[in-house]
Amino acid sequence: MTINNRVLKALVLFTSILALTMVLAACTSDEPDPTPTSAPDTQAPAATAAPSDSGDGAAPAPTPTAMMMEEESRYGGIANFSTRADPPLGWDPMRSGSISVLMPAGSLFGMGNMIRQCPDDGTAVCPGVATEWSKNADGTAWTFTLRDNVYWHDGVKLTAADVKFWLELAVFGVTVGENSRRPVSWNFARWVESVEAPDDLTVVINLKSPVFDFDQLLAVDNQILAHPRHLMQPEIDAGNVNVSPLDVGLVALGPYYLEEYRPGSVAKMRRFDQYYKTDEAGNQLPYLDGIDFYITPDPSGMDTAFRTGRLDATARGSGFQLTPEREAAILSTLGPERVTILEMAQSSFWALAFNTLREGPLQDVRVRQAIHLWLDRPELVQVTFGGFGKMTGMFDPDTAWANPGLMETPGWNPATKDADRQQAKAQLAEAGYPDGFEAEFMCRRLWGFVCEPLVGQLEDLGISIDLQLVDDATRAARTLEGSYDMVMSGPTLALPSQYGSITSSAGTSATADSKHNDTKVDDFFVRLASAGSVEERIEIAQEMERYIAVEQAYGAWLYTENTHTVVREYVKGIQVPIDNYRRNLDFATVWLDK
Amino acid sequence: MQKYIARRVLLFIPTLILASILIFGILRILPGDVALAILGQEAAEGGGGYTETQIRELRAELGLDDPLPIQYVKWAWSMVNGEFGGESIRSTEPLSSIIARRLPVTLQLTVYTVLLSIIVAVPLGVFSALYQDKWPDYVLRMGAILGQSMPNFWIALLLLLFMVTQIGWSPPLGYSNIWVDPFHHLQIMIWPALILAWRFSAYMTRITRSGMLEVLAQDYVRTAKAKGLGQGLVVRRHSLPNVLIPVITLGGLEVSTLLGGTVILENLFGIPGLGQEIVQASVGRDFPVVQSLAMMLVFFMLGLNLVVDIAYSYVDPRVRYS
C-alpha cells in the first residue's frame, strides 16, 4: 500500500466519522420530552365573569387597576420576551421561588392561588380563583368560596378537591411506601392543621392556633396553585411523589397554555380562551395571542437581541436587570422614544446584621447605633448599584408597612449625615472604643460586590474589618453556629411576618442573621399573627421597625435595589408592581400597539 | 495492528477511571455541604429558615449519607448503565435525557467548525508556504496569530457589538434543528462556528505551512521538479499527502479542545448544547450535572485521542511497529 493510498483511506475514515456524527446529531429532534401541547378543551365554556369579589380581610381590588391603560387595548400578536434560564425543578413553584420560574410560569399558572396580593397594594389581598373568604371568630378556621368558571388548560373544571390536594401537598408533603415528598416552607404552611372540601366550591382551612392575617400569608404571590390533582394523583399513587408540573404537561390555570417548550431555547405560550378573568370592561383576558419566552442565558446576548428587535422585553433577575451602562447603550441605539423603562423595587432589604451573642463591642447598643448612624446609604447605592436603588428601613418606604418619615431620621437622612457621623464617633468613644475595634464580617461570596463598599465605610469609622467571603454552605453552617460578628443579610420579603426567621431571638430561630436573646422581638411576630386588621398589623410592623432597626439596632438597614428592565414602546399594559419585582407577572393585560 | 489497538484500548480504560476519580474527588473536596448550600441559598435569598431535620432529609435525598466510596461506585455504575449520574438537582430531568438532547447540538457545532477549518486551513497553509516570506505569507501568518491569541468570547462580543451597531442585526433566538428550519439553524450556528473555526484553522494553517516548507525542501520534491513536473502537480501529488499526516493527527487531537471552547460561545449565542448546560449547572450548584457532563467531555477527549492514535498507526506503520 502506498503512502498516498493510506492517506486517502485515513481521509475517508476521518470524513466518514464526521459525516456520521453530523447525521446522528442532526437527526436528533430538538423537541424533547416532555412537550406538553394539550390544546384547550373546547368543552370548557368561555369565562364571562369579571373579577369583582371581596374578602373580609383587606380592601378588595379587582385585578387590572394598576396597569397602564391610557390607550384602548387590542387583541392579537405574539410578544417575544426574555427569560434568563430554564425554569428549574420541573417548573414547580413549590420547590423553587426563582425568578426563572416566576417569569414564564406566571403567564402559565396565573399568579397566586385562591387569593393573591393586590397588584397595586402589597398590604391588601385580592381574589384569585376564590371570590370570597372569611374567618371564624377566633381566627382558627378560614373559609374560601371558589369561582364556578375556572378550568385547567385541558378543560377539566377546578373544584375544591383540587385546592385541598394542592394545600395538603404543600403543607404535609406526601409519603407513598418508602418515597417521601417534603412539605414546603411557605409562609402559611406551619399554621395549617387540616383542609376540608365540604362541596365543590368551598374550601375550609383549619389552623393550629388563631392567625388573623392568614389571608395575607396565603396570598403571597409565589405560592402558586400549579398542581392539577387529576393528573398528579395517579402519578403519586404510582410512587412518583415528587411529580412536578412539567411531568404532567404543565397543565395549569393561567391566561396562557403551553404550546411548546424546548429546554435551553424557547417556551411558547398561547392564549387560553377559557381563562376566568376579564378586564374592567368585561373583555376576555388575555389580550395577546401568545408569548414566546426565549431563554437567553447571557445578558449581553439578551441586550443584543433587544437592541436589534428580536426581543420585545428584557429579563428580570440578578445579572439580567440593567445596569446604568447597559441601559445607556440601549437608549443610545434605539432612542428613548422607542423603549419604555420599567423600574421596580425588589423587596430585597439589604442589611448589615449584628451578632450580639458573641463577646465583643457589638453587644453594646451604642456601638450598633454608631454604625447605623455612620453608614452613608446614598453613597452605597451609587457605588453598589450605579444609583439603581433606594434607602430602606425594614420595609420599603413607599409601602404602608414602613414608618412614615423614617428616611428623614438620623442614619438615613443625607442632610444630617455630617452631624450623624460626629454623633457616631462620640457614641463609639462613649462605649469605650474611641480607636475602633476589630470585627469579622461574613458575606456570601455572590454578594461580594455589596459587602466590599461597606467595608470601606466601616473602616472609615475605625472598625478594622476582616471580610470573609464564603460559599452558601459555609454561610449556612456559620449562621447556625453564630460564628461571626456581622453578616450581610439580603432576603426578599413580602410581609412583616416573614422577618421572623431572620430577626427572631436565637431561641426561636437558629437561622436568624441577627443574633440576640431579645424575646420582645419574638412578641412582635406573635402580635402580628393575632392582629385582627391590616391597620393593626401596620401599626405593629412600624413599632417593630422602630424597635429593631433604630432603638436596638440589631442590624443596620441599608437599601433595596431597583430593577430596571426595558420593553419596546409598543408593548402596553404591563402591570408594574409597586413593591416587589417578582410579582404580577402573568402578562394577561399586556397588548401590542403595532 | 490488532495488538496495537488492544494496547491502546487497555490504556484508555484506566485513564478514564483515573479521570472519573479526579472529577468525583474535586467536587467532594470543595468546601461546604451541598445540602446546606441548597438550603442556605434558599434562606439567604428567600428569608426562610430551615431545620436540622430538613438538612438530614435533603442529604438523604441527594445520596450524601453514603460513604464516599459507595457514592463513587454508584455514580460510576450509573455512568456505565446509561443513567449518567441520575438526575439534575436543578431541573429534576434525567441526565440521560439532558445529554441526549444537548450533546448532538454541541457535536453539530464542532462538526461545522472542523469542516470550515479543513476547507480553509489546508489551502491557506499551502499558499502561505509557497509564498514564504512574501506579503501573502505575512498577511496569512498575522491572521493565524490573531486567531490563536484572541479569546473566543472576546471575538464573539466584538462581533455581536459590530452587528448591532453597524448593521442592526443579530442572530435569531430559539434554536432550530437543521432539518426543521435550515435557514434559521444556520443563522444561529454559523457565527460561533466561524469564531471557533478561526482559532482552529489558524492552528491547522500553521501546521500545514510548516509541514509544506519541510517537504518542499526534500530531495524527492527537487527531483520531481527536475523531471519537469509543474508546481501544481508537485504540490498535489508529491508534497501534500505527506503534509496531511501530521495535519490529520494534530487536527484530530485539537478537535477535543473544541468541545471545551463551545462552553462560553453556546451561552453567548443561546445555543442549547452541553456547554450551556454546564454553565447553568455550575451557577445553580447542580453537582450531578457538572460531574457527569465533565466526565462526558473527558470521555470524548480520550476517545478522540484513541481514534487519532489508531488512525495514525493506520496511516504510518512505523507507529504500530515501534
Explain the overall architecture.
The complex is a heterodimer of chains A (594) and B (322). Chain A has 594 residues and is an alpha+beta fold. Helix content of chain A is 29%, strand content 20%. Chain A has helices at 3-27, 99-109, 160-172, 214-219, 229-237, 299-307, 324-334, 365-374, 377-385, 417-430, 448-461, 472-481, 500-503, 519-530, 534-551, and strands at residues 78-83, 115-118, 121-127, 130-135, 141-146, 174-176, 179-181, 192-199, 202-207, 256-262, 266-271, 290-295, 339-345, 350-354, 389-391, 438-444, 464-470, 486-489, 555-568, 571-572, 591-592. In chain A, the strands form 6 sheets. In chain A, strands 13, 14, 15, 16, 17, 18 and 19 form a 7-stranded mixed sheet that branches. Chain A has a 4-stranded mixed sheet with strand order 1-12-11-10, with helices on one face. Chain B is mostly helical and 322 residues long. Chain B has a single domain (95-320), classed as Orthogonal Bundle (MetI-like fold), CATH 1.10.3720.10. Helices cover 80% and strands 0% of the residues of chain B. Chain B has helices spanning 2-29, 34-46, 52-62, 68-80, 95-130, 135-149, 152-167, 182-216, 219-226, 231-268, 274-283, 287-315, 317-321. Chain B is globular and about 85 Å long. The termini of chain B are close together. The model of chain B has no long low-confidence stretch (mean pLDDT 84). At the A-B interface, helix 1, strand 12, helix 6 and helix 12 of A face helix 2, helix 3, helix 5, helix 7 and helix 10 of B.
